[in-house]
Amino acid sequence: PTVPANLEHKEASLSSSTSRRNSQNALFYGFLSYKERYSLNFNLRMDGTSRLGPAKKWLYSPSVSLRYNVNEEPFMKSFDKWLSLLSLRAEWGVNYREPSKDYLFYNMYTTNSNTYPYGQISSSMPVAVLSALKLDDLTAEKSQEYNLGFNIGLLNNKFEVDFDYYYKKTTDLIMNNYNIPSMTGFPSMSMKNCGTLVNKGWELNVNARNFIQKGKFSVSLGLNIAQNANELTDMDQTVLEGMNAPWESGSAL
What we know:
Elements: E1 23-34, E2 38-49, E3 58-69, E4 83-97, E5 108-118, E6 121-132, E7 141-154, E8 159-171, E9 174-179, E10 188-193, E11 195-214, E12 217-235, H1 237-243
Antiparallel strand pairs: 1-2, 2-3, 3-4, 4-7, 5-6, 7-8, 8-11, 9-10, 11-12
């Protein structure tokens, strides 16, 4: 049968996307030095990003480093013949890692074509449906790091020793595709802050430059020893349950 003209329906479709990203940055830097013995560096970086909601879009990353050149002290002059460098260092700083997607603080919608019966005639019409939940509380991963170290130079820096101890704590770890109860109508959230990670260790470098030299022939050696440990000190219980299935009798160990 022929469909009456007044019942004819031309299928339409709607689509939308976001591709714009906004960011603002500012950096302040300061440096102080006194008689080549003491030095102080200070940095403050401010980042505003559209990847975080209006209430949390500004990230502040300060850092401070101190250096004390002990060998420049007057009482160290008697050691100049063999001790060319002795310095102590201390550093502290904060860094951030943004989410990898834009505008997560908005609800996202998409369109589906649903078919509605009209007598013996079916009509398809586009319908807007919610495709992603807005994440108002999502924030950037925050890393706070401490570093202590020293440098020793011997015989005009022919032999050098460099030691560092570091401690880094990262909070608000970002988990992708975080599972949520199905009663919400969604199997997962695109991202969620859900854990804390501690990274600590030390590193020792020893270098000997041209300690054997005869004509055009020379020998240099380098030694590196390090130890590093990562510890997940806190994690959302839902994530742990998803990664560690409960043990059952008869399961392989």
